[in-house]
């Protein structure tokens, strides 16, 4: 049986998250990306003695591990297998009408990367799965073996920003015509061979962007992020805080643009002398430039190096006259 100790979860930017969320006793908090419960454990301590946490995750193993880790707070914890893009419905089912803070720690967890059979990493050979919820959806193996050349090129470019997307997709098409691609190492070696010698990235494995693209596509991460950001804002009470940790430019761009749009007031054309739209800002941006991990943290946890924390506070709306 997998234990919470097996499910490693080093909470990234922990002190910065707790400071940004501005937690207090009795607060109701949604951790939309529960993982192993690393952030949630400290959120529960900060909201003692009567705060409550709703933890959401798509991964059954994560939920089981978090349940063990958070067992001392059992009466103050509710765990549900769900995507954070479903939080409005989950809160409705739980008869919760107020939410003081929401945390979204995006991307794949350390445990999922380290667990070979999940297929997220090319460090060990494993089936090409990459699903965060292994009970639903298509696998990465199905994508690379069944999707057209044009669709593979689009996925690698759009979700991985891969320069050599067409060369890699063509190589996949050649190989799978003989025998289907089945494992992570098969795909990683194929990508390495497809990228021209001398053009391979120096600091990362040549297959990094392709694996990122497949994972994002298989789990529809960007689609869920766009929906989840709006749902988080909808469930927050005035004065509540939404904090988001992203790990690559595609996520961070969506978060930054959403926050900027929600903080904007008048949306009238510039040529109009006065505002006629009446648009009000929904949030106050709390992190103008984004918060990054300290050098000390990145040395202790290298995966924190690419993390960016952004947050907003939901504003109280004035009645329109």
Characterize the structure shown:
The chain is 40% helix and 12% strand. The protein is built from 13 helices and 8 strands. It is an alpha/beta fold and 321 residues long. It has 2 domains: 14-111 and 221-314, Vaccinia Virus protein VP39 (Rossmann fold, 3-Layer(aba) Sandwich); 133-218, Putative methyltransferase TM0872, insert domain (DNA polymerase, domain 1). Strands 1, 2, 3, 4, 5, 6, 7 and 8 form an 8-stranded mixed sheet that branches.
Largest sheet: 8 strands, mixed
Tally of extended strands?
A: 8
Beta-strand content bin: 5-15%
Rg of Cα set = 21 Å
Keyphrases for this structure?
alpha/beta, 321 residues, 40% helix, Rossmann fold, DNA polymerase, domain 1, 13 helices, 2 domains
Short précis:
The protein is of the alpha/beta class.
List the helices and strands and how they pair.
Layout: H1 14-21, E1 28-31, H2 38-46, E2 52-57, H3 60-69, E3 77-81, H4 87-93, E4 101-105, H5 110-114, H6 140-146, H7 149-160, H8 165-176, H9 184-194, H10 208-218, H11 221-235, E5 241-246, H12 249-263, E6 283-285, E7 291-292, H13 295-300, E8 308-314
Parallel strand pairs: 1-2, 1-4, 2-3, 4-5
Antiparallel strand pairs: 5-8, 6-8, 7-8
Helix pairs in contact: 7-8, 7-10, 8-9, 11-12
